Amino acid sequence: MLRYALVFSVGLAGLCLAASSDPSNGWNSNLSWQTPAALQAMDLSHNTKPIMYLFNQPWCGACKRLKETFQQEGDKISKLSQKFILVNVGGDDNSGFGEAFAPDGGYIPRILFAEPSGTLRPDLKNPANQKEYAYFYDSMDKVRAGMKNALKLLGSQGKAETSEQPAAASATSQTKPEVSEL
Ligand SMILES: *[C@@H]1O[C@H](CO)[C@@H](O)[C@H](O)[C@H]1NC(C)=O
Question: Domains in the chain, start-ordered, CATH in brackets?
Answer without folding.
Answer: 23-160 (3.40.30.10)
